[in-house]
């Protein structure tokens, strides 16, 4: 349940901005050598001075030329820098809560027998977190066996963050030869948010399992809430006989209560690439999301960073975490499924270790990774898997921004199969441009069409709490 | 510029003030040593003004143009017959200004302004300065040892240096 460690450090644009990025990928252990040609300008001056000195027979110009040529030779005779280094990272808190500031201390040691006059280190910060303090880059001089240390801070976000290898660029004293290498140092920061201790109660619909729980069912039997009094039948338990009535009328009567049963709930989180957008910075437009990933095959990683407003997926996951906590505390079975190219399926259960499983999956499963998926999502096979996995007596809570018709249709189809569905929909739309306004209206219509089938939709607008949104929906359904 | 994932989008590739300062000081030394020849000093002064601006802009080309004014000033002064010691100091400091500026721009694009880079920049420029001083002293000693009539000997020596350079390039 973690990302695979990348084999290459990204050095895009490091050597020369025009290069193909794949050419600049350096494998761990590989060393790339480059002549910087940085003394060519001085050589040109030396040759011009030499020429002029000869033509005008000015000896002092020849003197100046000799100085320039000496620097050309300086660039040639300096030995290439050693590139055997080791790197060691210390993390102040390897298991932080989201939003915590984690300090990373990087120690670089020169293992070679010669000094490195010019050592530049670029640490492999995971692309899923952002640096909030200091710089993950450092330049220094390292004598043989010498060590240097630098510190920066990142802000923890949900997920397993595995550090990339650090990139080291070493130059000789003259700077004529540059050696680039990637140095591995296995470090990871795992941020697994806890399920909320006192969650908002998420309503469950009246489709129940045969297990005892906290949802009052339609059927009568043993329980707490009074339902009716009926004639005594042979076999009724003594403690359910209404003795007062028996004393009054002389006939045995039995009290019936409403039975309380548990529900089995599958949390279905929409984690397709389109849900990685956030309100405000780059909001979702219907046109973008309907044409799917081809318009935005490689979304700018900066737009996914948690600084700024949260993505729809992040809010969906937060809502799912609240729902899971609420359902577990009510004694229901909880399962988890992701609508994502990276399948995630945990069948509903009630055990304590299951709670941890759901918590970890919501935090670190690939399907909910902070980097949006690049693989295409197969809508047909997802529907088949959904129908196969989710049993008929389980109900489904769908977490989706409802930015395209697919989720709305899937929800309506599930409802048509008499599966009980609730939708919790974080609203990612804004109204800052006509296109965004149109997308907002489109989504509102979709919400209305789902609601018109009798499916409860919690429309969670940006800037309000989930609690408010749930309360509003409860009023709507009780009214 | 350099794209390392996970960093804020506000990566600032502006060269550090240490590197910029080193280049600017070296350029001023060039101007100072050329004061005896007016047009040479003026050309070098143009370069000295342009160098910090060019380094801060992060453009290697702008910096190369600015530094070429320093070299042009030194060459003009050399033609005008400035004292060889002053010329040597002017050329040496122009080379250091070129070197420190190029280095600062390189460090800026690779490490950014936020990183601590002063050690690298000071060490690199100190190395270049040491080479310039050593070569300058040796060259001047050789120069004074050879009389003006024996220019041909100097030419042969310079050609030998060229040949050596070319051979080392193999």
From TrEMBL, chain A:
Q: What are the record keywords, sorted?
A: Membrane, Transmembrane, Transmembrane helix
Extract the Pfam families matched here. Answer: DUF11 (PF01345), DUF58 (PF01882)
Report residue spans for region: Disordered: 282-316
Compositionally biased spans, kind Acidic residues:
291-301
Q: Where is the DUF58 domain?
A: 229-276
Membrane spanning segments where?
42-74
Q: Which residues form a coiled coil?
A: none
Could you tell me which residue ranges the DUF11 domain spans?
A: 85-147
Going by the entry's taxonomy, the superkingdom of the source organism is recorded as: Archaea
This chain belongs to which protein, by name? DUF58 domain-containing protein
What is the organism field in this record?
Answer: Natronoglomus mannanivorans
């Amino acid at each position: 349940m973690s990302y695979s460690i990348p084999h290459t450090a990204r050095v895009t644009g490091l050597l020369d901005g025009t290069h193909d990025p794949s050419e600049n990928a350096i494998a761990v252990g590989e060393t790339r050598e480059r002549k910087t040609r940085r003394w060519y300008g001085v050589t040109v001056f030396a040759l011009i001075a030499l020429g002029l000195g000869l033509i005008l027979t000015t000896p002092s110009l020849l003197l100046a030329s000799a100085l320039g040529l000496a620097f050309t030779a300086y660039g040639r005779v300096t030995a290439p820098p050693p590139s055997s280094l080791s790197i060691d990272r210390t993390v102040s808190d390897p298991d932080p809560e989201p939003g915590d500031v984690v300090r990373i201390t990087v120690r670089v040691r020169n293992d070679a027998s010669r000094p490195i006059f010019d050592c530049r280190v670029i640490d492999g910060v995971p692309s899923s977190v952002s640096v909030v303090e200091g710089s993950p880059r450092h330049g220094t001089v390292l004598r043989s066996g010498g060590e240097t240390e630098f510190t920066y801070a990142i802000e923890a976000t949900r997920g397993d963050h595995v550090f990339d290898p650090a990139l080291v660029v070493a130059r000789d004293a003259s700077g004529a030869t540059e050696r680039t290498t990637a140095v591995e140092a296995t470090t990871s920061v795992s941020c697994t948010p806890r399920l909320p201790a006192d969650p908002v109660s998420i309503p469950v619909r009246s489709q129940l399992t045969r297990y005892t729980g906290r949802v009052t069912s339609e059927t009568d039997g043993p329980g707490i809430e009074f339902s009716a009094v009926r004639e005594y039948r042979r076999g009724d338990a003594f403690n359910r006989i209404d003795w007062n009535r028996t004393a009054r009328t002389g006939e045995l009567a039995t009290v019936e209560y409403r039975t309380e049963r548990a529900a089995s709930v599958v949390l279905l989180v929409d984690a397709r690439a389109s849900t990685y957008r956030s309100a405000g910075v780059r909001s979702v437009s219907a046109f973008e999301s309907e044409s799917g990933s081809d318009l935005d095959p490689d979304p700018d990683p900066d737009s996914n960073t948690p600084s700024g407003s949260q993505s729809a997926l992040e809010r969906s996951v937060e809502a799912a975490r609240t729902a899971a906590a609420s359902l577990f505390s009510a004694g229901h079975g909880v399962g988890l499924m992701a609508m994502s190219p990276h399948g995630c399926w945990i069948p509903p259960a009630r055990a304590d270790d299951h709670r941890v499983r759901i918590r970890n999956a919501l935090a670190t499963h690939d399907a909910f990774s902070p980097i949006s998926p690049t693989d295409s999502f197969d809508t047909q096979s997802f529907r088949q898997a959904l129908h196969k996995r989710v049993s008929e007596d389980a109900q489904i809570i769908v977490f989706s921004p409802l930015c395209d018709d697919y989720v709305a249709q899937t929800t309506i189809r599930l409802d048509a199969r008499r599966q009980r569905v609730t939708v919790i929909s974080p609203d990612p739309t804004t109204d800052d441009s006509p296109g965004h306004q149109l997308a907002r209206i489109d989504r509102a219509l979709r919400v209305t069409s789902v609601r018109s089938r009798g499916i409860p939709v919690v429309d969670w607008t940006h800037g309000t709490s989930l609690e408010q949104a749930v309360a509003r929906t409860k009023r709507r359904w009780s009214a | 510029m350099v794209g390392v994932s996970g960093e804020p989008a506000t990566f600032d590739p502006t060269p550090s003030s240490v590197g910029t300062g080193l280049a600017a000081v070296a350029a001023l030394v060039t101007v100072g040593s050329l004061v005896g020849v007016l047009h040479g000093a003026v050309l070098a002064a143009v370069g000295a003004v342009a160098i910090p601006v060019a380094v801060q802009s992060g453009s290697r080309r702008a910096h190369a143009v600015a530094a070429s004014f320093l070299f042009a000033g030194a060459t003009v002064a050399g033609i005008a017959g400035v004292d060889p010691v002053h010329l040597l100091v002017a050329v040496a400091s122009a080379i250091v200004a070129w070197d420190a500026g190029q280095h600062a721009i390189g460090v800026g694009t690779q490490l950014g302004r936020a990183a601590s880079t002063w050690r690298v920049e000071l060490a690199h420029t100190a190395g270049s300065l040491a080479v310039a001083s050593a070569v300058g002293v040796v060259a001047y000693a050789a120069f004074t040892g050879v009389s003006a009539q024996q220019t041909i000997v100097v030419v042969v020596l310079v050609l030998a240096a060229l040949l050596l350079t070319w051979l080392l390039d193999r």
